[in-house]
Write a structure and sequence with these properties.
Elements: H1 2-17, H2 23-35, E1 36-38, E2 60-63, E3 66-72, E4 82-84, E5 98-101, E6 105-109, E7 122-125, E8 129-132, E9 146-148, E10 153-156, E11 170-172, E12 177-178, E13 193-195, E14 202-203, E15 216-218, E16 223-227, H3 229-232, E17 240-242, E18 247-250, E19 263-265, E20 270-273, E21 285-287, E22 292-296, E23 306-308, E24 313-318, H4 320-327, E25 333-335, E26 340-344, E27 357-359, H5 385-393
Parallel strand pairs: 3-5, 4-6, 5-7, 6-8, 7-9, 8-10, 9-11, 10-12, 11-13, 13-15, 14-16, 15-17, 16-18, 17-19, 18-20, 19-21, 20-22, 21-23, 22-24, 23-25, 24-26, 25-27
Antiparallel strand pairs: 1-4, 2-3
Length: 394
């Protein structure tokens, strides 16, 4: 009996020397737990026993007596996801630096109370069913560096205040239902990644709306309009650019092809004029298809590994440098179908490497070689003479 009493006293002593979680944080975690649940097969909340120290819970990380990171449903804890809503009590975790909700079935609005988390640096709640509008108060969180709310059901406009966050590095809002125009990010001098793909955004980009710090820019699958040449030529740090599936007009700035890009996606817009790089293009993939581009094809594009120039209004002969690099297997994809090209110098007995694809279908010439065209190119190999004559006449 004496040994048991001594052990109990010793245990109480050690517990008294440890930091006890702040009562406000303790109650906030209880509210968060009540509003969220494991989906079938998930065991994330199995460790959330409030008779124990909450700092030992899965996804809860503490410094001293405060919660500094909350990673709800993290896969490392054996969770395939959570369901339910995010409780407004999350805004009471005043020392929170990282708030993450892993992919699952969490629904409902993003609590306005998140705007009280002045220490927050990372907000990641993607691949769930979050709805409603993005709280404008997020623009008050001056320490925010990453916002990832992609693959949800968010609607309404992107709050202009978010574009003024001084420390913002990454903003990912792809695959939502956002509308309105893209706010100015001129004040976000540290912004590296901006991904607004697959929304319903409208309007145009003003010349100074995007910072030169951008390295990744994806605005595809929206309804954006206007010219892009005066916007793009300043973004000389870009290594990825996707403006496809919009309604952009105007010409492509020559400087763009000299940027450190690995991927350039401008397809399915209304861009027009010639394509004239300054020097040999080192971009691995360039897709300019389904536009209104014209003039002769520049031999400086023959160094591109995957080149899509189909469904435009290019004229003249295909430069010989393309043939050389294609036969040497240095070009994987060369799609030139549905233009007004008049010739290509290639031996009819030449064999295209198995790793390469060439399509010349529906131009103003008879394709001199067997081609590997996509099915959507159609079955007509030659453009009707009246179309070629009409285009050349005009």
């Amino acid at each position: 009996m004496k040994i048991s009493t001594f052990s109990l006293i010793l245990l109480c002593f050690f517990q008294s020397t440890r930091a006890i979680l702040n009562p406000i944080d303790f109650l906030a975690l209880q509210s968060i737990r009540r509003s969220l649940h494991d989906v079938p097969g998930s065991k994330f909340f199995s460790s959330w026993d409030f008779t124990d120290d909450p700092c030992n819970f899965a996804g809860v990380f503490c410094v001293s007596d405060k919660v500094v990171a909350l990673n709800l449903g993290e896969p490392r804890a054996g969770s395939p996801g959570l369901t339910g809503k995010i409780d407004t009590a999350v805004g009471k975790l005043s020392s929170l630096v990282d708030l993450t909700v892993s992919a699952g079935r969490v629904y409902g609005p993003l609590p306005q109370s998140i705007s009280k988390l002045n220490n927050l640096k990372f907000l990641g709640i993607s691949r769930n069913f979050i709805s409603g509008e993005i709280p404008a108060g997020l623009g008050q969180l001056r320490n925010l560096r990453t916002i990832d709310l992609s693959y949800n059901q968010l609607a309404g406009a992107i709050p202009p205040s978010i574009g003024k966050l001084p420390n913002l590095n990454n903003l990912m809002l792809r695959h939502n239902r956002l509308t309105g125009s893209i706010p100015s990010f001129a004040s976000a001098k540290n912004l590296n990644r901006l991904d607004l793909k697959h929304n319903s955004l409208t309007g145009s980009l003003t010349p100074d709306s995007l910072p030169s710090s951008l390295q990744y820019l994806s605005l595809s699958w929206n309804q954006l309009t206007g010219t892009v040449d005066r916007v793009l030529y300043k973004l000389n740090r870009l290594n990825y650019l996707d403006l496809s599936f919009n309604r952009f007009t105007g010409s492509i700035p020559r400087q763009l092809f000299s940027f450190p890009l690995t991927n350039l996606q401008l397809e399915r817009n209304q861009l027009y004029g010639p394509v004239e790089p300054f020097s040999e293009v080192t971009i691995q993939t360039v897709d300019l298809s389904y536009n209104k581009l014209s003039g002769e094809i520049s031999p400086l594009l023959s160094s591109v590994h995957n080149l899509y120039l189909n469904n435009n209004a290019f004229t003249g002969e295909v430069p010989g440098s393309f043939v050389e690099r294609l036969l040497a297997a240095n070009i994987q994809i060369l799609y030139l179908q549905h233009n007004y090209l008049t010739g290509i110098v290639i031996n009819p007995t030449a064999e295209i490497p198995l790793s390469s694809s060439l399509c010349l279908q529906y131009n103003c010439m008879v394709p001199p070689i067997q081609m590997t065209c996509p099915s959507k190119a159609g079955y007509l190999k030659i453009r009707p003479a009246q179309e070629c004559n009409h285009y050349q006449y005009h």
